[in-house]
């Protein structure tokens, strides 16, 4: 009997570790999309070794955001929109609308990225590649254990991307010493680059991807804090490894004086680093980055409306599939609506301060958190991120709104 109990306990622990790792990789791979690849390459070309400092600061801010949000969600046992509605009635609906709108718009870009990835990998037409990729993503949510399938896929895709990225970083032989020096003593600082990286890594739906996955797997309560903390930091660490590896690969190319093709910067880096084989490897990374972002965006966006209706809760997997289909059909027949994407991008920048600010207020409400006391250092650091990202998000929105009416 004792052996049976021990066996059950071990199985539960193994399942819990799998979910925690899956949540970490879901958040990480959701943030590592087509935009991630382009941003990192372009900023490396502009800032060279100084981009190492930008990566360091953005990762520190990312950790503050995720430690706060994952902890508050799992301790309260409520999803982001439910917490927001308890803080202020209707706020959760507003937040959900922003998340779904942003997630749908950017999923069009993710689907397009998946098509381009297959084009670079095996040479098929990007639209055909996008459709094949969408069918693959849909299959994940058709299988009986969709959550487990999503966890496993995120982990495998994440590991493949990391291995390939680290390999390419080695082939370009970047001046690592210069990069390390500039990590702490940069020759130039770009606030815009820091804000872009933070928004791209923990902005919009990405902020909630891991926390909502843990809730769906039944991981919640004060007793889960140590595991949740490890999971959230693991997610940021995976993103950090990918960012550093891609930066070093691009820095190696830039330091050799080679010209990066502005029409497709990340593909250019891989081709310059490892020739035609490198370009095919870029296709694998682009596809993996895009398809995991398609899955993460669809899953997390729909998780924001699940609590609004028993019907949505019951059929949420089918609504996720519909979300992917709508994104794909829009790309195939309309393309990427650039102006709308620009404005929604600015709105997405506002989601982080609104969401984090709301959850920090909730963290000090007894009717939401019970007897739990949120650490003061997390409240202060989280508050600083809210102020900084809120101000810069508003400035970006004001700048981008006129684009919609051109």
From TrEMBL:
PANTHER family documented for this protein: SOLUTE CARRIER PROTEIN FAMILY 11 MEMBER, TRANSPORTER PROTEIN
Q: What is the lineage of its organism?
A: Bacteria, Bacillati, Bacillota, Bacilli, Bacillales
Compartment(s) where it occurs, according to its Swiss-Prot or TrEMBL record: Membrane
Q: Mainly resides where?
A: membrane
* This protein's UniProt keywords: Membrane, Transmembrane, Transmembrane helix
Q: What membrane topology is annotated for this entry?
A: Multi-pass membrane protein
Source organism = Cytobacillus citreus
- Identify the domain of life: Bacteria
What's one Pfam family the UniProt record gives for this protein? Answer: Nramp
Transmembrane stretches, start-end? 47-67, 87-108, 120-141, 153-170, 190-215, 236-259, 279-305, 317-334, 340-363, 375-398
Concerning InterPro entries, the annotation shows: NRAMP_fam
Q: What is this protein called?
A: Divalent metal cation transporter
């Amino acid at each position: 009997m004792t052996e049976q109990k021990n066996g059950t306990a071990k199985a539960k622990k193994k399942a819990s570790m799998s979910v925690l790792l899956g949540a970490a990789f879901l958040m990480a791979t959701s943030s590592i999309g087509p935009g991630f690849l382009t941003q990192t390459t372009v900023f490396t070309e502009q800032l060279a070794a100084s981009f190492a400092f930008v990566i360091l600061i953005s990762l520190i801010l990312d950790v503050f955001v995720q430690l706060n949000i994952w902890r508050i969600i799992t301790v309260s046992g409520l999803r982001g929109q439910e917490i927001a509605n308890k803080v202020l009635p209707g706020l959760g609906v507003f937040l959900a609308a922003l998340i779904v709108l942003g997630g749908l718009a950017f999923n069009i870009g993710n689907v397009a990225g998946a098509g381009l990835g297959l084009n670079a990998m095996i040479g098929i037409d990007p639209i055909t590649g996008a459709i094949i990729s969408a069918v693959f993503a849909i299959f994940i949510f058709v299988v009986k254990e969709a959550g487990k399938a999503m966890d496993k896929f995120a982990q495998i895709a994440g590991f493949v991307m990391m291995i390939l990225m680290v390999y390419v970083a080695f082939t370009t032989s970047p001046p690592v010493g210069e990069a390390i020096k500039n990590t702490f003593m940069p020759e130039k600082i770009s606030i815009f680059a820091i804000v872009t990286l933070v928004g791209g890594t923990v902005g919009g739906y990405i902020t909630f991807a891991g926390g909502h996955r843990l809730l769906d797997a039944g991981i919640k309560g004060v007793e889960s804090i140590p595991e949740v903390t490890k999971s959230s930091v693991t997610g940021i660490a995976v993103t950090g490894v990918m960012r550093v590896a891609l930066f070093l690969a691009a820095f190696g190319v830039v330091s050799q004086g080679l010209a990066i093709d502005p029409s497709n910067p990340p593909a250019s880096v891989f081709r310059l680093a490892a020739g035609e084989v490198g370009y095919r490897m870029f296709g694998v990374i682009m596809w993996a980055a895009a398809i995991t972002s398609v899955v993460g965006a669809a899953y997390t966006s729909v998780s924001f409306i699940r609590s609004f209706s028993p019907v949505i809760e019951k059929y949420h997997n089918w609504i996720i599939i519909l979300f992917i289909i709508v994104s794909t059909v829009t790309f195939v027949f309309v393309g990427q609506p650039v102006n709308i994407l620009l404005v929604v991008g600015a709105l997405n920048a506002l989601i982080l301060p609104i969401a984090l600010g709301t959850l920090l207020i909730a963290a000090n409400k007894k009717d939401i958190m019970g007897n739990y006391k949120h650490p003061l250092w997390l409240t202060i650091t989280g508050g600083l991120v809210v102020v900084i990202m809120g101000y810069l998000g508003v400035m970006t929105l004001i700048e981008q709104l006129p684009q919609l009416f051109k």
